[in-house]
Amino acid sequence: MKWLELLTVAGATLTAAVTVVVLYSLGVRLTAIAGDSQTVAPAWVRYFAYICFGLCGVAVLFGLYLIIPYFSG
């Protein structure tokens, strides 16, 4: 068995999963900050939240592209 390839795939999977979770969590947190009525948040906070959600969606679509054989064939 090729252990180095197994560790490479495991590392890439862990990195991708952590990245998607962090992007989504950051987007949720920034949306909560922008929607808080007690504080005045700058306008860029909401846009940055949407960018985080967009990057999370792109990462999910890229994962689907890699998994579905129709697209990579």
Structural commentary:
This protein is mostly helical and 73 residues long. It contains three helices and no strands. Helix 1 runs antiparallel to helix 2. The two termini are 26 Å apart.
Radius of gyration: 17 Å
Overall, the morphology is elongated
| Helix and strand sequence | HHH
The span between the termini is 26 Å
Helix content: over 70%
- Low-pLDDT segments: none
- The secondary structure category is mainly alpha
Strand fraction equals: under 5%
Largest sheet: none
Helix segment tally = 3
What is the average of the pLDDT values?
Answer: 91
In total, the number of domains comes to 1
Q: How many strand elements?
A: 0
Indicate the topology.
Elements: H1 3-35, H2 43-67, H3 69-72
Helix pairs in contact: 1-2
Structure summarized in a few sentences:
The protein is an all-alpha fold. The chain has three helices and no strands. Helix content is 85%, strand content 0%.
Features:
73 residues, mainly alpha
